[in-house]
Amino acid sequence: xxxxxxxxxxxxPRVKSVWNSFGVASRCAQxxxxxxxxxxxxxxxxxxxxxxxxxxxxDSVPARALxxxxxxxxxxxxxx
Length: 80
Description:
- This protein is mainly alpha-helical.
- Helix content is about 60%, strand content about 10%.
- Strands 1-2 form a two-stranded antiparallel ribbon.
- Strand 1 (about 45-50) and strand 2 form a beta hairpin.
């Protein structure tokens, strides 16, 4: 990641400092807990209001997963 930062002309010591910060470590730990709680098995996979998960299959169009996600969100808004 630091090589990428350097290639992009970023301040590498600053990127390293932020990457190793408590805030980033906390967010990564939170993301890992959510991944475990939702039993995420593949990427990209989305959890919607703790009730549904959806993902894109390798042979599928990503827009299809977004359409399903939109439909689920609309369903939740209508029916609670």
